[in-house]
Known about the structure:
Elements: E1 4-12, H1 18-30, E2 37-42, H2 48-51, E3 56-62, H3 65-73, H4 75-87, E4 88-97
Antiparallel strand pairs: 1-3, 1-4, 2-3
Helix pairs in contact: 1-4
Amino acid sequence: MGEIKHLVIVKFKEGVVVEDIVKGMEKLVSEFDLVKSFEWGQDSEGPEMLTQGFTHSFSMTFDKKEDYAEFQSHPNHVEYSATFSAAIEKIVVLCFPSVRVKPSA
C-alpha cells in the first residue's frame, strides 16, 4: 500500500479570516513528524458549476494509515479541528492510499 493522503476541500463561512485558519493549520502540521507533507491552495480557475462553492483545499501525506490515525486522535488535532469546523460552511474529506503513477521530477 502507498502513502496515505488526507484531502480536505472546504467552503469557509462568510467573514472567516482564512489566513488565520491557514496559519493555525500550518502550525499544527509543523508539530508532527508524522505529517510527511502539507499543501494547501485556493481555487482560482474552476467554474462555479464545477466547484460547487468550494474554495480551498488542504492535503496531507502520511507514510501509513497508523500515522494518520495517530495524528487524527492527537489532542492538538482534536482541539484545532473544533476551530476549523466552526469556520466552514461545507466540507468534503477523502482519505486514501495513493498510487503514484509519475514520480516528482
